[in-house]
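Tutorial, part two.
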Amino acid sequence: MNPLIMIIEDEEAIVTMLKYNLEKEGFDVCSCADGNEALKEIKVRAPALVLLDWMLPGMSGTDICKQIRYDHSLRNMPVIMLTARGEEADKVKGLSVGADDYMTKPFSVPELIARIKALLRRIQPAEAPGELVFEDIKMDLNSRRVTRGDRFIHLGPTEFRLLQYLMERPRHVFPREVLLKEVWGADIHVELRTVDVHVRRLRKAMNEGGEKDLIRTVRAAGYAIDTDPNGGSEDNDPNC
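Running the prediction step on this input gives:
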């Protein structure tokens, strides 16, 4: 799956320009114009990287960056500040609240894209490219092979994509609507309960050997892959 970049910016022209150029480079893109709403979306969508404007309605970019760094599940998420404030003191402030990089408007789009790619390369695990690991589950993305311990797990294409999406963002709870868009695609019109059917199939395949259920269901919220002892089957919808 393509890395998801979240643009938090209230200038529509900038959002449109960034979205066009990032998608051309192969990234998935989502955007938000309000600071308070953006923080909620970050927790739901778990983007690979955030492009964050300084001045926003609702909550400032610096406050959003602080909240990201305070949240244990988000603190390693790369953040690039985009702002018209070019003074050295402003740059120092932006970096001191946790931004990984800082670009002053107007900025060079090719340079921004180069910085995004450099940050994403930096956070990739060097020892196992093409492999995802969570607890005793391993996904080889090149051979499309999934194992749990010593056991090979046969998954259909949809279950494979679903597990990959969850393993790329462990411990994040994703609503069914988000999973439908990200796993099935925005242009595919299927029922929300389709997600439940495939989660049930995924669980059956993952737990056939009597292993602990790592697919967590949160009532009225969605699904996550998690080791939470209160997650898994304890709070599952019986139909899922």
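The domain at 4-123 is CATH 3.40.50.2300 (Rossmann fold). In part three we will examine how such features are distributed along the chain.
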